[in-house]
Hints:
The complex is a heterodimer. Chain A has helices spanning 6-26, 30-53, 81-104, 111-130, 134-152, 159-190, 195-201, 219-234, 243-246, 252-261, 266-273, 275-278, 282-303, 309-329, 333-361, 378-392, 398-412, 418-444, 452-457, 463-478, 486-492, 497-506, 515-542, 546-553, 555-562, 567-615, 622-642; strands spanning 58-68, 71-79, 209-212, 215-218. Chain A is mostly helical. Chain B is mainly alpha-helical. In chain B, strands 1-2 form a two-stranded antiparallel sheet. Chains A and B meet through strand 1, helix 5, helix 6 and helix 26 of A and helix 7, helix 14, helix 16, helix 18 and helix 19 of B.
Amino acid sequence: MNYYLLIPFLPLAAFIINILFGRSVLKENAHWVSILAVAGSWVVAVATLMDVISGKTLNQNLYTWIVSGSFKVSVGFLIDQLTAVMLIVVTTCSTLIHIYSVGYMHGDKGYYRFFSYLSLFTFCMLMLVMANNFLQLYFGWEGVGLCSYFLIGYYFDKKSASDAGKKAFIVNRFGDFGFGLGIIMIFITFGTVYYEPVFNQAGSFAANTVNFLGYDVNLITLIALLLFCGSIGKSAQLPLHVWLPDAMEGPTPVSALIHAATMVTAGVFLVARCNAIFSLSETALMVVALTGAITSLFAATIGLVQNDLKRIIAYSTISQLGYMFLACGVGGYTAGVFHLYTHAFFKALLFLCAGSVMHAMGGELDIQKMGGLKKYMPVTYGTMFLASLSIAGVPGLAGFFSKDEILWLAYSGPSPVGKLVWLIGTVVAFLTAFYSFRLIFLTFHGKFRGTHEQEHHLHESPKTMTITLMLLCIGAVSAGWVGIPALIGDAVGLENWISEFMRPVLGHPEGHGTHAEEWMVMAISIAAGFAGIGLAYFLYLRRTDIPARLSEQFSWVHRILFNKYYVDELYSLILIRPTIWSAKNILIGITDAKVIEAIVNGVPNAIGSFSRQLRKVQTGLLQHYAMIMATGVLIIVALMLLR
Amino acid sequence: MEMMVVNSGFPLLSVLIFFPVAGALILLLVSRSRETLIKWLALGVSIMNFALSIPLFINFNKATHLMQFVERHEWIPSWNIMYFLGIDGISILFILLSALVTILCVLISWNSIKTKVKEFFISILLVEGAMIGVFCSLDFFLFYIFWEAMLIPMYLLIGVWGGPNRVYAAMKFFLYTLVGSVLMLVGIIVLYLYSGRTFNILELATKVYPYQMQFWLFWAFFAAFAVKVPMFPVHTWLPDAHTEAPTAGSVILAAILIKMGAYGFLRFSLPLLPEASKAMTPVMLTLSVIAIIYGGVICLAQSDLKRLIAYSSVSHMGFVTLGIFALNTQGMEGGILQMINHGIITGGLFLGVGAIYDRTHTRQISDYGGVASVMPVYSTIFIVFTLASIGLPSTNGFIGEFMILLGGFARSQWAGVLAATGIIIGAGYMLWLYQRVFFMETSQKVAGLSDIDAREIIALMPMVILIFWIGIYPNTFLGFMHESVRHLIERVNTGSVHGTTIAQNVLEIMK
């Protein structure tokens, strides 16, 4: 099974070839190297999935990375059911988005650079999901963050783009601060950072308390929450969500691949991977569930009023990631990963459709200036419509199955906050359907509201793009069929395959509720979805005067939502500006300049003035010297006599 | 029982010290008008010296903590001063790095030094000899001579070929380090008298000194070493010296010279004064953490390229001292590795800044912008240094910082947690720097610049290669340290374990 090594290292090879030869040799053919590599990875990933399905898993070290005293860690690979699913998600999305980029990035001056970064990203993401220890996970984790930094700031001559890239990296570092400490705590507790011994021994530490910075806390809860800090950053949860909307400065394929389908889900993957730790701590799980639920509601409300095509989808991503954490937090790791998997398809599709729209609109992003695009770009419209139905949870489509499973587990599971997060989740389902279709209706229906010039230019995108849209659309529609809930599955003779498949790694909590309750939960979520679509239809196609009146009447609500609750402004006010101010005015202005330098320059100055005084002694008069000498001798003699 | 092997075979260490000095003497004889010849000679000598140092790397026995390649001769018998050289797992890497860095300094100065070319390259070679001497001296007197000897050419490098404010900076550098050194000299003399008149460092490390004496000696040594590191609050010479020094001067300062402080702690303070070192750990950890945060935050308000990197050194050296005074394996090995790493990374950053300074003649960050558009190769290399500086995994910076944080956290949770904020701040100022210089619209001064040429690429590539080598396979380098570090930690923790073994060894040698 050693061919699994090809999965990460093919994209790495593509990166190296492209970065070395892309600029001078490959130029506009740079995509071939990257596409062949990632497609190769995909083929091997499928073969690996087959292996895992047939019961073969693998945990193997490649070489010893760091040794120091008792600390030892390797570069190594763990391929189990969870990894296999992630491999399919990553390589599939990556391959399709590579192909889409050929059309989308055509003629860009940094063409080779774009494909080298995509390949590097794919490598890092694969190293992340295939790691068999925490330090390699961290390697992949930071690596994808780096690629994200490069790709957000891809148009680096734009200040906003380079700002956004930097912001993404630094905000993530706040999360990684906790994550890193978590890894250190794991080593100090378990004496190793390999998954297997850590997860096996975690149970025996469940009751331990540890003094952390003066507070006595439960050891496992502490470790889980420190790790979760990393998830909060990478998956853009409250309060570290601020980087993801800005990340939309990157080219749209990047938004689809990194900031929707793969990298941002790494946080969910981390929690699922560490389920053996999280499950031991009710507190940690509750924090995860509530963070997810609150974030998903928070982001959904912002999404209601935004006008930037990509930012709406970005807030939708934050919200859906919250959903995945909500699932993990109620113990439904399978449901969380299942949603991760379906979300990858429909959200990547939404972004790629947005890219297609931008392509037609000449880079325009304001949906208020669009409208009626469906007759110009039928493929984009059709696929985006289906993707929106999927995210809205319309029965039969991918999003429905995963969302339903999450809500049912929240409702029926053992979590003390289960009912609360179920309620929030249901409200979010309604909001999601609403803003998704607000976007569809404003963009594709009604009359075109842009300039004549733009209208003249409207066209469907080239084949490499539309074919990708259609392929992803197959996923957005059917990806959920591997997880048909038992309630329906029993009736038609299908099993919930994905839950069964991942049970060895993630377990599977049984809901405690009657069939009637289960039908009810499902019905409510379906109703919420349709209500959202219906309301959007009513407000944006029937009574188009109402939204404006509403935003006027509740202008303060609108203002808060439109300005994203002023979180960015708050951070600037309480963190960024005071730090830089004190660096300038206190550290440079006072400590370095006035205190330390005063002493440093003061001592020589004092010596200088002292010696100026001393110089006066040297009068040049012999009798003075003789007198001083005599006094000196006298003193010495006196001292010797007194001894 | 294993024993230290003395004076066997080729006196490699002496050659490494005196070959560059001999090179400098030859340069002295060349007519000053033949600048090309001078440059090629200097390059040849430095490359040759690096080649000579390779056998150290290959033949070093990693399985022992004992000194190797030892040379020992009577020098001034009446004062019991010896010419005593040797290296162990702590010092070997610094010798290799010194030899490498000298080559790069010669290369990067090729066109940028226009006045007194001959004297410049003589100074560089003299510095090299003295630096290597510092790292292999096992006689305290000899050590002190090299330690002081390297001040003079360094002072000249800053004071003669530096920027507009060079005289002030050079004087400050000189006085700061001299004051510290004088206190160290007092300490050395006290040790000499107390221990029955010996300067032999290995022998001194076998004695047990009263705590009161250790305490005062610790602070006397601290004065010398902390200034060199530089630790907070004696760091203010560094920004001035770095900013005013010519590129090669900055590189030598950053890569080697400031490592001598931390090396001093490892070679003298810890093994000679174990009780005091242990007792002073809280102070040292506190100062380290302050340096990390203080040095980092102050970078956020810098407008001068070299000054920013200088302050970032204060922060990174804070990590080093934190690791050393964690007094555990991961911390100390991380600290030593991070010394090498910092030499590579910050050396690389200064080399890189030098390359662009030669083109624009400005250090003001606000004069830059959009360099990535006009100098893609240079920008790619510089981002590698930037990322290594902020400790991205797969670069050497990550390995060092992670091990230090691991060791630091195990020693003191607060120190570990506070130091970890350094990785956030570090990302902040380095990426901000990179953005302002390389991204955004192309500024006037930058427009039309030519990308770096082959000479500059050759000067920068060794650092790039080492960054990934250490990042991906650090064991090549960590392997040298294990035994020496284990032995040092035992010495510190038990005061005298293995002391007897060494004492016997020393006695054997004496016969």
